Automatic annotation (TrEMBL):
Listed InterPro entries: Transgly_assoc (IPR007341)
Pfam families, per the entry: Transgly_assoc
Name of the protein this chain belongs to: GlsB/YeaQ/YmgE family stress response membrane protein
Domain of life: Bacteria
Coiled-coil positions: none
Entry's family note: Belongs to the UPF0410 family.
Amino acid sequence: MLGLGFLGWIIIGGLAGWIGSKIQGTDASMGVGLNIVVGVVGGLIGGFLLKLIGVDVAGGGLIFSFLTCLLGAVILLAVVKAVKK
């Protein structure tokens, strides 16, 4: 597990949420706070899904953690977009 601390996870979550919202085309309707929430929740979703398929998420490093958050954020935003339609 990375020792990033609370602020580190907020920064990674915010960046992942922002990039995820750009990928999903929802950036115009989201602010910084929502990007952070989407990135952090996305990290939880991404970590859970990767564990389900047998990937060791605990020792991945900074880039792996960011990509996990990004994957989860994109999935979360896709689900929210589908439900809104």
